[in-house]
Design a protein that fits this description.
single chain, 120 residues, 7 strands, two-stranded antiparallel sheet, alpha/beta, Trna Endonuclease, Chain: A, domain 1, five-stranded mixed β-sheet
Length: 120
């Protein structure tokens, strides 16, 4: 599973670079700084996007869809990333690995999360 995860994040990073983003930060990548984390006080959980990057002075947030995360935490994380992107005049993208598109669309629609889905 770890190798599959590395491939997904590598594909996501390639997409971000190809779209012209700079100041890229990514979780778990040796050569890159990790994005900032945010605390969810009521749960005492730290949330952070997989990738953050800037294009045209606007900061965007990127996450990777996963059924393995606790659904409540996943929804909180995506709502937070969407709000942060809006504040920074950026966008929120969710990279969707094969087989998770319907799951991701259902969560975004049900919880009114405005994200651009990118199939990997």
């Amino acid at each position: 599973m770890a190798e599959e995860n590395t491939t997904v994040i590598d594909d996501a990073l390639s997409w971000v670079k190809k779209k012209g983003y700079s100041k890229i930060k990514a979780s778990g990548i040796e050569d890159l700084e990790s994005p900032s984390s945010f605390m969810l006080k009521e749960e005492a959980i730290s949330l952070s996007p997989e990738i953050t990057a800037v294009r045209n002075g606007r900061k965007s947030y990127f996450d990777i869809a996963s059924k393995e995360e606790d659904k409540k935490i996943l929804i909180s994380k995506w709502k937070l990333m969407e709000q942060l992107a809006r504040i920074k005049n950026g966008n929120f993208f969710i990279f969707v690995p094969f087989g998770l598109k319907a799951f991701t669309e259902r969560i975004c629609k049900k919880h009114n999360i405005n994200a651009q889905l990118v199939s990997l």
